[in-house]
Amino acid sequence: MTLRKLTLPSAVLAAALILPASPAFAVSKEMVQLQTQVQQLQDAVARLQQSNDERMGVMKDLIQQSADSVNRMSSKIDTLEKQLQTRQDAQNGKLDQVSGQIQSLNDSLDEMKARLARLEKLMQDVQSQQQSINATMPPATATPMDNAAPPAATQPATPGKKGKPSAGTPVSALPEAPSTPAAPPVDDLYKTALGDYMGAKYQLASSEFSDVIRYYPNHTLSGNASYYQGEIAYRAGHYEDAIKNYDRVIEQFPDNSKVAVSHLHKGQALIALKQNDAGVRELRALIQRYPNSPEAMQARSKLSGMGVTVTPRR
Fold first, then answer.
1. What is the pLDDT of residue 114?
2. Using CA atoms, how far apart are residues 106 and 109, in angstroms rounded to an integer?
3. CA gap 251, 81 in Å, rounded
4. 118: burial class by Cβ within 10 Å (0-12, 13-18, 19+)?
5. Is there a contact between 250 and 262 (Cβ–Cβ < 8 Å)?
6. How much is the pLDDT for 282?
7. Lowest mean per-residue pLDDT among 22-26, 60-64, 203-207, 281-285
8. Where are the alpha helices (DSSP H) in the chain?
9. What is the mean pLDDT of residues 162-181?
10. So what's the pLDDT on residue 78?
11. Is the pLDDT assigned to residue 142 strictly greater than 50?
């Protein structure tokens, strides 16, 4: 009886202790699962973060590589532009050099032409004197002694047409050569002026070229003298005076060898005066008139450097 009383409360107490233990155990299990899920999420986030960091690192490397490539390409382009500019400058320098050599050859040719003209004139004078001498000789006869010239007293000195001695005038009775004119021969004047120009004596050469133009305004060497007057003015920066001299060559001496280079330098002088439209027209006129000349090559190079469309060579 007593044991039963003691056992029942104990059983009740044990049951009471056991009954609330089941919910506590369930709550603890859910917490563990929740913590496990949270840990899994944290691990996933950590892996995602690591993956993003790796991808960002790769993207940064790619961007850096792309930037380096762009910089290298930019550097190469700059180098190519400099090389092209250097080549263009060298080509322009060679064109200028070739043009200068051609001009020197033209000058030498002009000088040779002037010398030939002078020699031809001297030969004509000699021939005229020879004809005059032959005219004074008596006709030959069968007797050798009769070939001697008669005394001068028996040969009247009668002037012929245009001041030439008539037949029968002795050599000693020939009239004296006329006095030289006030102006020296045109070839001598031009040769002296050209020599001073080549020697960089521009002021003296300008005065001498002016003498050529003043004394022989219609001679072909006067056109050359006008061109060199323009060159002297151009070197001094007097572009308007240079243009006037170039215009004189172009307008008054259309067949002169200096016409093409006068067009070229006139165009350059106009551009130097900031008259770009007029300068471009002048250079295009040169290209149209002398398409295959060295001056036309220089004009194309100048227009191309200015960004102006150049008419292609035919």
1. 66
2. 5
3. 41
4. middle
5. yes
6. 95
7. 22-26
8. 2-136, 186-198, 202-215, 220-235, 239-252, 259-272, 276-289, 294-305
9. 45
10. 83
11. no
pLDDT at residue 101, rounded to an integer = 67
Amino acid in position 189:
L
User: Is a pLDDT exceeding 60 seen at residue 126?
Assistant: yes
Torsion of CA 169, 172, 173, 174, to 10 degrees: 90
| Category of 274 on φ-ψ map: left (φ > 0), alpha (ψ -120 to 50) or beta | left
Ordered by start, the domain boundaries in the chain are 22-72
**Alpha-carbon span 248 to 218, nearest angstrom:** 11
Let me know: does 308 contact 280? Beta carbons within 8 Å.
Answer: yes
**DSSP one-letter string for 85-123:** HHHHHHHHHHHHHHHHHHHHHHHHHHHHHHHHHHHHHHH
Bridge partners (DSSP) of residue 159 are 165
The structure tokens 């005229």 sit at: 128
Q: Which amino acid is at 35?
A: Q
Q: Is 148 left (phi over 0), alpha (psi -120 to 50) or beta?
A: beta
Residue 3 confidence (pLDDT) above 90: no
**Residue 138: how many CB atoms within 10 A of its CB?**
13
Half-sphere exposure of 187 (CA within 13 A, CB side): 14
